[in-house]
Amino acid sequence: MTSEKLPDWVPASGVRLRLAGVHFDAVRVRGVRGEAVLHHLVRATGGHPGPVVGELWRGRWTYFLVPPGSSKEHPWPPGAACFGPCARDQYVGIPAADGNTYPLSWRAGPPGVGEFVDPALLFAVVTAQLCLPPDG
Predict the structure, then answer these.
(1) Distance (Å, rounded) from C-alpha 6 to C-alpha 96?
(2) Which of 17, 69, 113, 128 suits a disulfide with 91, CB 3.0-4.6 Å?
(3) Mean pLDDT over each residue of the chain, to the nearest integer
(4) What is the pLDDT of residues 28-80, one digit of tens each?
(5) DSSP-derived secondary structure letter, 99
(6) Cα dihedral sign for 32, 48, 53, 105?
């Protein structure tokens, strides 16, 4: 993907911390639940869920990037952390489109300008996933 098609908050190389609530809000879900949410979003959107960042260490978090200010529109259930206007001074690691960005990566490809995860669809999927009993 060329840099002209990337939002200005995506770094040219490596990983950069970006303040949530400025260019995007983020909803974070841990481990297999985050993977399940992503799986259902991919199916519901025909393979184009919007920008999703995966973290490959510690909690194996998945960050779903939604339009700035939109995360406060939903009462996110326990297990989904809101980064944006509902919390102050929270940063999200954003990987470059290409190159070594370990431990972060774009799970559905880097975003185009103005592209985000649909917050209403994300809320529905997150609520469904986090209300299910854990696999046992």
Answers:
(1) 10
(2) 17
(3) 92
(4) 999 999 999 999 999 999 999 999 999 998 889 999 999 999 999 999 999 99
(5) S
(6) positive
Greater confidence (105 vs 86) lies with 105
**Residue-range domain boundaries for the chain:** 3-130
Count of C-beta atoms within a 10 Å radius of residue 133:
5
- Among 15, 16, 23, 1, smallest CA distance to 116 is for 23
Which residues contact residue 99 at a Cβ distance below 8 angstroms, ignoring those fewer than 6 apart? 13, 14
Q: From CA 64, how far away is CA 83, in angstroms rounded? A: 10
